[in-house]
Amino acid sequence: METRVMDYEVKVDHGFKYIETNPGKPVLLLLHGLFGALSNFKGILHHFDQKLNVVVPILPIFELPITEVSLEGLVAHIKSFVDYKEFYSLDVLGNSLGGHLAILYTLKYPEEVRSLTLTGSSGLFESAMGTTFPKRGDYDFIKNKTELTFYNPAVADKELVDEVFNIVNDRMKGLRIVLTAKSAMRNNVEGKVSFIKAPTLLVWGKEDSITPAFVGERFNELIPNSKLIIIDKCGHAPMMEHPEIFNAELDDFLEKVHEAVY
Questions:
Q1: pLDDT 10s digits, 238-247
Q2: Nearest-5° angle of CA 118, CA 72, CA 89?
């Protein structure tokens, strides 16, 4: 069974939903955030879809049994997916909550991760959408909160705002958002990330209001083999606001990683 998002087929296979661009090429595994539409990765997909096998598993945040809604449950899902696809050496990239999952996956399965890229990752500190969130039924409130994710509020187009609004307005989805966010708060990784040995690229927006730039700086201090890029006039999703800069940095980083391996 397949549907299409953007220019890509979303495959449904053995209970997994995912995009895969180029089987047989090195795998770039993209992990989305709590409100991560696949469109968040549009720039990365278009830039790397021929060069690499860009794989985007759609995380079952809204499908897991309610008792399994946690970061641990999502990491277990990613592991099951990776095993099913028989991927052995991953370049893992995560934004926001996806970065947090990427960290936990790398710590648990270090032998599978060739490189790690984090952008606006939670795990040390994050300013959530506010204690009043989720606020159901108030479109302007959700629109404002979504726009605050970006330095340029115009990036939060109607399609993205509608998607967040629909999630929040669904009572069970709203509950799962809260449970996942609470699990993220419990899973602080400050005392663990120094064990990450994989080459790590950190890309942060200078004006990120959710995981501020000091979070990227702290990750850079804690992760031994890491490089930090801070992008001016940029919020919580650099790959959306400045795709050219983001992709150039990622391209350079991955080329060096692959040269060292091969």
A1: 999 999 999 9
A2: 50
